[in-house]
Amino acid sequence: MKDYGANPLLSYNKYLRVPDLISLQDCLSGPEHHDELLFITVHQAYELWFKQILHELDAALSMMRDDRVASAARTMTRVVEIEKLLVNQIHILESMTPINFLGFRDKLNPASGFQSMQFREIEFTSGHKLESILNEFRDDSFAHERLQQRFAAPSLGDEFFALLRRRGLNAPAADKTLSETEQKKLYGLRTQAVLEILTHFEERYEEFQLAEALLEHD
Fold first, then answer.
1. Model confidence pLDDT, tens digit, residues 103-153
2. Where are the alpha helices (DSSP H) in the chain?
């Protein structure tokens, strides 16, 4: 990132690099289809928000490790608010008719929204880790390296249950080396720990706020 310091010539456009930003919407259709710009803008906006979500999730993970429970809860609440915005944003695309979309869709093959690296990073960080998804990015070294790091790192759930253990609750860590029956037993204990928080929220209000935010994110 550029260091503008106390540059008196700093402006809104320079700080946000608006000329660079608005030059990134390159339409592939020719002649240019009217709705392709909308399609690109919406999806680029998604990717910018995904970047922010990952920034917040990393902060929440760090806060949980440091037992800053109230701060982690507040950060996860911000994530949920961003996600609400993203859900509403999809309705903008619904203003585009199927016929209009087909006017430029063939130019996008074989690209697909399922290839969003950052969306998969959010999934992995949130605990939904599928090796099959990781393998789909094996030919993209940049994406694969980032996803591999997320895949190997503790998830939100891992850090949350570690936090609960430090606070005296019986919330054992997941252990894939155990049998399916033993894993279900551990899952039951973790579920019971969460229920303890949700039903005794006055005694464990910080943990309650964090659990609520994580559940809403999930």
1. 777 776 666 667 899 999 999 999 999 999 999 999 999 999 999 999 999
2. 12-16, 18-21, 36-65, 69-93, 98-105, 117-125, 131-135, 141-152, 156-166, 180-199, 205-217
Exposed e or buried b for every residue in 165-177, given b needs 16+ CB within 10 A?
eeeebebeeeeee
Answer positive or negative: Cα dihedral of 2, 150, 135, 90: negative
pTM of the complete model = 0.89
**Is 168:161 a contact under the CB 8 Å cutoff?**
no
Give the position of tokens 């809104």.
Answer: 12
Q: What are phi and psi of 86, to 5 degrees?
A: -65, -35
The answer to whether 207 touches 67, Cβ cutoff 8 Å, is no
Q: Is the peptide bond before 172 cis (omega within 30 degrees of 0)?
A: no
> How many Cα atoms occupy the beta-carbon half-sphere of 165 within 13 Å?
14
Residue 161, helix vs strand vs coil: helix
Torsion sign across C-alpha atoms 84, 90, 92, 94: negative
Task: Output the CA torsion sign for 123, 125, 131, 136.
Answer: positive
Closest CA to 116 of 212, 201, 51, 175: 51
Q: Is 175 helix (H, G, I), strand (E, B) or coil?
A: coil
Evaluate whether 104 touches 34 at the Cβ level (below 8 Å): no
